[in-house]
Write a structure and sequence with these properties.
By secondary structure, this protein is of the alpha/beta class. The chain has two domains: 98 residues, Rossmann fold; 125 residues, NAD(P)-binding Rossmann-like Domain (Rossmann fold, 3-Layer(aba) Sandwich). It contains eight helices and twelve strands. A six-stranded mixed β-sheet has the order 2-1-3-5-6-4, sandwiched between helices. Strands 9-8-7-10-11-12 form a six-stranded parallel β-sheet, sandwiched between helices. Helix 7 links the parallel strand 11 and strand 12. It is elongated. The chain starts with 6 loop residues before the first strand and ends with a helix. This is Shikimate dehydrogenase. Pathway: Metabolic intermediate biosynthesis; chorismate biosynthesis; chorismate from D-erythrose 4-phosphate and phosphoenolpyruvate: step 4/7. Keywords: Amino-acid biosynthesis, Aromatic amino acid biosynthesis, Oxidoreductase.
């Protein structure tokens, strides 16, 4: 006789068959004996499919949110945590007993916890490549760490510089370069953000939010110049554990 599923969790995103979360939580439930818990992928073409999922998925207690829905999911929620509201992006949803949806951001926590051990006194400013939902959690974490930052965007924006404006002086002024774009994610492993990698030095940190592949072209090119590199795996684990606590509190 199969045991009834008592608690269901899942990942909401687009083209997420590669996802870390399903494997991570399935292993966690098996290894830590959370019988009756399952984790599944909800791969949807548009965020407008969310109400249908909520209606048809019994015992759904929590969702992780990934690209490209971290911002567009917000209008579907009943409440936001204070930090998610300040950040303007959500990657974790708790579904209460009454069926209300509360949005949280655990990305910023995962990023902060992952970056902090690498920081040295000379790491004074950060450049964030990309302006999407993931970049917002990164920016919030840098605010908490008192590290000034500048966004880099493909087109001119009020609070961002364009990629073609990055030069040797930029690298002198910014010692932490963070890729918050999906450029270089498997299967497009040959792609990389278009920045002048020759200006990386051993004084720089190159941090990529991507975890698959473990070493992206962005990280390889930075490492060749002596930079310290870090991928997004630890960040993902930290944010996943934080989400688990939120779902169970």
């Amino acid at each position: 006789m199969t045991e009834t599923v008592r608690k269901r969790f899942g990942l909401l995103g687009r083209n997420i068959s590669y996802s870390f979360s399903k494997g991570y939580f399935t292993d966690k439930f098996n290894n830590e004996n959370f019988t009756g818990c399952t984790y599944e992928n909800f791969d949807i073409p548009e965020i407008t499919a969310l109400p249908e999922i909520l209606k048809n998925t019994l015992n759904l207690k929590g969702l992780s949110i990934t690209i490209p829905y971290k911002e567009t999911v917000i209008p579907f929620l009943d409440k936001l945590s204070k930090k998610a509201e300040l950040i303007g992006a959500v990657n974790t949803i708790k579904i209460t007993k009454k069926g209300t949806l509360k949005g949280y951001n655990t990305d910023y926590y995962g990023f902060k916890k992952s970056l902090e051990p690498l920081l040295q006194p000379h790491h004074k400013k950060a450049l964030i490549l990309g302006t999407g939902g993931a970049s917002k959690g990164v920016a919030f974490a840098l605010d908490e760490l008192d590290i000034p930052y500048t966004f880099v965007s493909r087109e001119a924006k009020e609070n961002a510089i364009e990629y073609n404006r990055i030069n040797a002086t930029t690298f002198d002024n910014y010692q932490i370069i963070i890729n918050s774009t999906p450029v270089g994610t498997s299967p497009n492993v040959d792609a990389f953000p278009l920045i002048p990698y020759e200006f990386f030095t051993e004084k720089h940190i190159a941090f990529d939010l991507i975890y698959n592949p473990a070493e992206t072209q962005f990280l390889k090119k930075a490492k060749q110049q002596g930079a310290q590199i870090k991928n997004g795996l630890d960040m993902l684990i930290f944010q996943a554990e934080k989400a688990w606590k939120i779902w169970n509190k």
